[in-house]
Amino acid sequence: MLRFVRLPPPCWLGPVALAIAAALLATGCSRTPRKPAIAISAEDRAVLNQYESVRVALADDDSRRTRLAAEKLAKAIEAPGVSPTVAKTKAAAKTLADSFRIDVSRAAFKEISAALIPICDGAEGFFVFSTSLVTDGNWIQTTGEVGNPYLGRAMATYGEIKR
Known about the structure:
By secondary structure, the chain is mainly α. It is built from 6 helices and 3 strands. The chain has helices at residues 13-27, 42-59, 63-78, 84-87, 90-98, 102-120; strands at 127-131, 137-141, 160-161. The protein has a 3-stranded antiparallel beta sheet with strand order 2-1-3, with helices on one face. A hairpin with a 5-residue loop joins strand 1 and strand 2. Helix 2 runs antiparallel to helix 6 and helix 3 (63-78) packs antiparallel against helix 5. It is globular. The model is unreliable at 17-32 (pLDDT under 50).
């Protein structure tokens, strides 16, 4: 019969374990630092919410819903207080809102994505995805489940979390 004998830990183990636990808590136990979601302004957050609606509509190949969501996105981009990076996407958002062709909408969405990714990169609650089937096919999502706006319904789940 095996018997286990409980030995007292070395006296230095307690302080070392405490220091390691404190360091892990201070860094959030993460390999990459993440900005708190609050670091994104309320105005930019409103743009990102509308961007997500456009992304979902594009992933569903729904041009009507894409146009409606894009109109709201364009209004959010024109709101006072958005960051200069977001304001630069105004022309692409207008193209997106005015387009009846899904390929033109996706090209404009790609331009908007390229501008918005640096704002969200590393922020809590936002995921940057990419697809190898589209040149510079990167986008932002608020969920970890792939919803590819560039390939539509046929390949909506093709992509991976980039960061």
